[in-house]
Design brief:
Number of domains: 4
Oligomer: single chain
CATH superfamily of the largest domain: Jelly Rolls
Structural class: alpha+beta
Number of helices: 18
């Protein structure tokens, strides 16, 4: 016991110097961590670097000077001491370099601290074994055998972890994908949210957060939908009945794709392919590029919705099971055999109500000589010829300069916006009210559409054909005067919005009479 105490006392100065050095290093490290520096600056990076190795480096420097002062640097214990703290200093610097390189490559250190500490512990254990072997000349064969067995057990138990770490290193170095990319890994489709050395995290299209081991990522087929650009092409299948010509179906599909807000204007325009003929339908494929693959589901939903409305308005049938089709054919055949007249549409009364709320009838009532109670009966006879059509948000009812079916529309529900480009290039915008007529100029004169009407929310319209209008004109001639007055009012509104002055009364009356004569010639001529 006395020898032990005397031995400790002999190294009292060494122990005191070591304790004092540790205290000073700890205080310096604490002060560096407490400094309020702006992240990313040079001063902040230097302070962060010093906190990694200030402790072992300060102990090593003090030890060198102290051993030199005591002239005992040749002793084995002091050599082992210097090797130990020199190794710790080098390991701290190496850890700092690993962190800095990882940050430079992927933005932050992706190697877990526990793995870095484990690697440092293994290296330090090897250095200690070498010190025992060559400085203290101890037999370490038993220690090496035990270490080999322990290493084998640990390696076997952690082979999955090591394989993921190696795969993570390959992924980081290859740059196959980056955080934020939309990828398909095997059967998983989503965008990358985090890339670690052990696993890769992605958020699927359904919003689920999925962790995929890097070894599985490396062995799977990877489709990066964000490279070389974030845009992508959608291939959307559609089917239509054999009763409809392909060009009509293709036109509806192309219009839906063109009006889609997610469609890209920097890639080839949308196209439609007739892909096959099945038992009950003709199959098509719409190909359209979108600006960002993350809009995959919203784009498909918007296009499908627009196609449904367009098919509905055009009368294009989406095939349904053959049993239902056969049943319909049987009922139609029975009706024809028995000469059963089809009843007026159940929607006729609702259409009649909408008609009497519109400018179309409101302007007619003051001008007609008929008993106002006779008007509902008159319109009821043709109510089934007014077709209710629906447009979804983003669609165009018609565009300025188009020459389409020249139909007249009555606005009965929803929200729309109109624009008219004048000859001087000025664009006049207007918001039609419920009950307004749309496209009356083209309908009555046969001229191209004079304005563009865009749908803002789901909108309902009544569509009036020229044949229906001709029947009404023959029954109520005063209708032409009411329509002429509507067109004059619309012309006056557009004129007032584009100029500071207004149309004179004489000019207004001249326009009305001219339109009246033109409309009368159009709608009173005999049908071909």
């Amino acid at each position: 016991m006395k020898q032990l105490i005397s031995g400790i006392l002999a190294y009292t100065d060494v122990i005191l110097v070591f304790i004092l050095t540790c205290v000073i290093a700890s205080l310096l490290r604490y002060k560096l961590k407490r400094l309020k520096l702006t992240p990313g600056t040079k001063t902040h990076r230097i302070a962060s670097a010093l906190t990694h190795f200030i402790f072992p480096l300060l102990v090593l420097i003090v030890s060198l000077f102290f051993f030199y002062y005591r002239e005992c640097s040749a002793a084995p214990s002091y050599s082992a001491w210097l090797i130990l703290w020199g190794t710790l200093t080098l390991l701290s610097i190496a850890d700092l370099l690993v962190v800095e390189i990882s940050v430079a490559l992927v933005g932050k250190c992706q190697i877990p601290k526990v793995l870095r500490n484990l690697a440092q512990g293994v290296i330090l254990a090897i250095i200690l074994c070498l010190v025992l072997k060559f400085i203290y000349e101890k037999d370490i064969s038993v220690l090496m055998t035990s270490s080999a067995i322990l290493t084998g057990i640990i390696g076997f138990a952690m082979q999955g972890i090591f394989s993921n770490l190696l795969a993570g290193a390959v992924i980081h170095s290859s740059g196959r994908f980056n955080i934020g990319d939309w990828v398909k890994i095997g059967t998983l489709d989503g965008h990358i949210t985090q890339i670690n050395w052990s696993d890769t995290w992605l958020t699927t299209l359904s919003g689920n957060l999925v962790s995929v081991p890097n070894a599985s990522v490396l062995s799977s087929t990877i489709i990066n939908n964000s490279a070389p650009t974030r845009s992508g092409r959608l291939d959307i299948p559609f089917s239509a009945s054999y009763d409809h010509p392909p060009h009509e179906v293709k036109q509806c599909l192309l219009e839906a794709a063109t009006e889609c807000t997610y469609a890209s204007s920097h890639h080839p325009p949308p196209c439609v392919l007739l892909t096959s003929f099945s038992d009950f339908a003709v199959n098509y494929e719409l190909r359209v590029w979108i600006t960002d693959y993350s809009n995959y589901h919203p784009a498909i939903g918007a296009i499908n919705e627009a196609v449904w409305y367009k098919f509905k308005r055009k009368g294009i049938e989406i095939p349904f099971p053959m049993s239902g089709k056969l049943m319909e054919n049987v009922l139609l055949a029975a009706a024809q055999i028995n000469q059963v007249e089809h009843p007026v549409s159940a929607d006729a009364e609702n259409i009649l109500v909408d008609l009497f709320k519109s400018d179309f009838v409101r302007k007619l009532i003051p001008t007609t000589t008929l008993d106002h109670n006779q008007l509902p009966d008159l319109f009821r006879t043709v109510a089934h010829e007014f077709h209710r059509v629906t447009f979804t948000a983003g669609e165009y009812i018609f565009r300025q300069g188009e020459k389409d079916d020249e139909a007249l529309y009555i606005f009965i529900g929803g929200k729309i916006n109109g624009e008219k480009r004048l000859d001087d290039g000025k664009v006049v915008s207007f918001d039609p009210e419920l009950g307004s007529l749309l496209g009356e100029m083209s309908f009555l004169t046969g001229a191209p559409r004079s304005a563009t009407i865009k749908v803002l929310i789901t909108t309902h319209l009544l569509k009036v054909s020229p044949s229906t209008m001709r029947k009404l004109v023959h029954s109520v001639p005063q209708l032409m005067d009411a329509l002429s007055q509507l067109v004059v009012e619309r012309t006056q509104q557009l004129y007032d919005s584009s100029r500071s002055d207004t149309l004179s009364l004489d000019k207004t009356e001249q326009i009305r009479k001219s339109l009246f004569r033109r409309f009368w010639n159009v709608f009173t001529r005999d049908e071909d």
